[in-house]
Amino acid sequence: MIPGVISTGLLSALTQLAESWGTGEKSRPYFRKRLWGSWSMLRAMVTDRATWKAHVMLDKETGLDPPGIKLRAAQGFDATDFFVTGYWLWSKIIENLASIGYDPTSAHTASYDWRLAYQNLELRDRYFSRLKNYIETAAKLSDKKVVLVAHSMGSQLAHYFFKWVEAEGYGDGGSRWVEDNIEAFINISGCMLGAVKGVPAVLSGEMKDTAQLNRFAVYGLEKFFSREDRAEIMRAMPGISSMLPKGGNAVWGNLTWAPDDSPSQNTSNGAFIKFTKGNYTEAHANLSMSESLDYLLENSDSWFHNMIRQSYSHGVALSGAEVEANQKIPQKWVNPLESRLPFAPSLKIYCFYGIGKPTERSYYFHENNDPLSRLNVSIDTTVSGEGSDRGVVTAEGDGTVSLLSAGYMCVKGWRLKRFNPAGVKIKTYEMPHQPEMFDIRGGPNTGDHVDILGRQKLNELILRVAAGDGDSISDNIESDIVAISERVKIYDD
Ligand SMILES: *[C@@H]1O[C@H](CO)[C@@H](O)[C@H](O)[C@H]1NC(C)=O
Ligand SMILES: *[C@@H]1O[C@H](CO)[C@@H](O)[C@H](O)[C@H]1NC(C)=O
Ligand SMILES: *[C@@H]1O[C@H](CO)[C@@H](O)[C@H](O)[C@H]1NC(C)=O
Ligand SMILES: *[C@@H]1O[C@H](CO)[C@@H](O)[C@H](O)[C@H]1NC(C)=O
Ligand SMILES: *[C@@H]1O[C@H](CO)[C@@H](O)[C@H](O)[C@H]1NC(C)=O
Ligand SMILES: *[C@@H]1O[C@H](CO)[C@@H](O)[C@H](O)[C@H]1NC(C)=O
């Protein structure tokens, strides 16, 4: 099981990040305390904000531990069961798996420090080497291939792992490794093409109305930190930026049109950042998705700029030759539109995600002339109406991940030969959001990005795959994702 970070407030991690292992003077009060997603976090935020911030941010230049500070992902089932006491995450799934015979010798959670850029997960923690060993051992001992279950950011990480594990000079597993070791890949609320909420989080430190799981962490950040602090913290966690949207304008649209615009919509979501005048006489030009990412990098310090450029890539590979060339380029591995699935004809991929919950899709921003602020932009919360609620325009999704990001690869992208040369079978099961009014977690039929982990249907589907009966699952598509995907401007080469 590969947990995710909730991309909404971005901060709250399913992995309860971060026990402090530093023994220096500053770290002593926090030794083995959870500095992310716990009461210790809130306590530290209240009593010693600067120290807390210094602990959770990575070194800006190296993207690794700052001198004298050491935070690590908490490990084991306990780390992923509950976020705070009583707020279940994976506990229901683990309990259900136990009921069909899984136990700690046959099930494993692979927690990771989601703040790190993916390459640094290997460099610092040998994360991918360990995952590879674990899977090989499990497969050998049971004489059965392994089922991987990933949630949210975990699904991007799994895709990256597939690339890494086969590549020469990295995992060195060779082109048959996935075929030989992985039975199925279950991908819950995956955000392979990113989450648009990531953009305002790093651009302007704004994470409003993103209280999903993160209610807790976002609460602390909003309450005790300035917008500038929040943007700085988000940027100094390069793992978070792995969730910036991928596929550029081909997926997210141009200034007047987007594949997922609805016919009744007057203002296209393709204009991802729509500028209003603010205090200026003229508004900045509107920005499409590709332009927005360029704008973000132009308006941020070089350490952030460099880290993003060194770690990730957000485009589309137009030909099979380009995809093959990218097999050797780690920056491309996180993007399924620039790298391909493993050549594993018997691998099965299951995409399970929620729909029917308004999800941030585009924004109204204005430029600021506040001399105290180093961030020159913020969401223009005065714009409401015409689809916008206080500067935020929503569209179809699971509350965190847009339908476009959740569904495109599953129903269309992986039907293109260059991204899936072995014809790996993909099944897509959508679950509409039908929350129960009096249950804060939405009850048995929620489609929410996080709460879906407790949904009855999702648990049943996971059990079917884990019990070797995944073939009995058929597609369930209730949204417009097929028509939307046809409009995405990516074609066979
Ligand atoms: C945006 O894309 C649509 C659909 O392809 C096209 O009709 C329109 O001219 C494009 N607009 C701009 C500003 O490029
Ligand atoms: C930006 O988009 C908004 C909303 O569609 C529009 O009213 C405005 O004119 C656009 N700005 C520019 C400079 O085109
Ligand atoms: C913000 O705007 C000011 C004035 O236009 C400019 O000098 C400064 O470089 C901008 N800051 C960033 C981070 O882009
Ligand atoms: C516009 O100016 C007012 C008064 O100086 C200030 O309070 C406000 O924050 C400014 N708005 C923006 C978007 O910069
Ligand atoms: C689009 O504009 C028309 C005419 O101004 C208006 O009646 C309609 O409500 C608008 N649609 C949306 C989704 O705002
Ligand atoms: C996981 O599923 C999501 C849909 O929920 C999809 O967008 C993504 O591409 C899938 N990723 C992988 C690696 O299967």
General description of the model:
This protein is an alpha/beta fold and 493 residues long. It has two domains: 5-194 and 331-354 and 404-487, Rossmann fold; 248-315 and 358-396, no CATH class. Helix content is 32%, strand content 11%. Strands 5, 7, 8, 9 and 10 form a five-stranded mixed sheet that branches. Strand 9 and strand 10 form a beta hairpin. The two termini are 35 Å apart. 53% of the residues are buried. The structure holds 2-acetamido-2-deoxy-beta-D-glucopyranose (6 copies). One 2-acetamido-2-deoxy-beta-D-glucopyranose (NAG) binds at residues 264-266, 386-387. GO terms for molecular function: O-acyltransferase activity; phospholipid:diacylglycerol acyltransferase activity. It comes from Tuber melanosporum (strain Mel28) (Perigord black truffle). Keywords: Signal. One of its GO terms (biological process) is phospholipid homeostasis. This is (Perigord truffle) hypothetical protein.
Question: CATH superfamily of the largest domain, called what?
Answer: Alpha/Beta hydrolase fold, catalytic domain
Briefly, what CATH class of the largest domain?
Alpha Beta
User: How many domains?
Assistant: 2
* Rounded average pLDDT: 86
Helix percent band: 25-40%
Distance between the termini: 35 Å
Major sheet description: 5 strands, mixed
CATH structural architecture of the largest domain: 3-Layer(aba) Sandwich
Give the SSE string: EHHEHHHHEHHEHHHHEHHHEEEEEHEHH
The beta-strand count equals 11
Low-confidence stretches: 5-17
